[in-house]
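#onboarding

Welcome to the new folks! Below is a worked example of what a typical request in this channel looks like: someone posts a single protein sequence, and someone else replies with the predicted structure as tokens. Don't worry about understanding the tokens yet, we'll cover that in week two.

Example request:
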Amino acid sequence: MKKTQTGFTLIELAIVLVIIGLLLGGVLKGQELINSAKAKNIASDFKNTQILIYGYQDKFKAIPGDDANVARHVTGGVAATTPAGTLNNAQINGAWDSVTNTDESFLFWQHVRLAGLSTGPTNLADPAYLPRNADSGRMGVQSIAGFNTINNMTGSYVVCSENIAGRLVRQIDINLDDGDTAGGSLQAIVAGNPAPVITANIVDGTPYTVCMSF
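Example response:
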């Protein structure tokens, strides 16, 4: 008895390959859209932090975090006690990534939230109190005075955001600055290095800390 062989025809194989190509294209395009949205979100964080400072200053004639009269300006506001003797010096003292809840840079977020300029927890003990970027990295702000991580930055304040994938760093720099991640007002630092190194050699999958001065 004669057996008949069954299998895919060339047309069927071609159709399968086309479908696979469309699926892969859709996945890659979707990932590209996700990355673009993340980059725009993080870029907005940098721009919005500036608005928070100037909005609070315009409203209360003081700098958030540095406001000695915050308890009078907003209900529940806590005045910073560290670094000692720095209140009302028109600076946001303390490191941008401080975890000391008496530092000006730490209390910055409570002040702007209680003032209605930003959303988020105002309870200093809340696990979600410290703001995170779209890549789940910590972000924060401090004065340029006392910021020694990048020495060639100018301005009054610096905003930093960590754990940003290299593929996003380039987009953010082009969006906000000059596209040079080793110069200008926005620069990238190699993350996890004991002595942070500014770099122009951005690798897509490597996490970086990005700082912008203004």
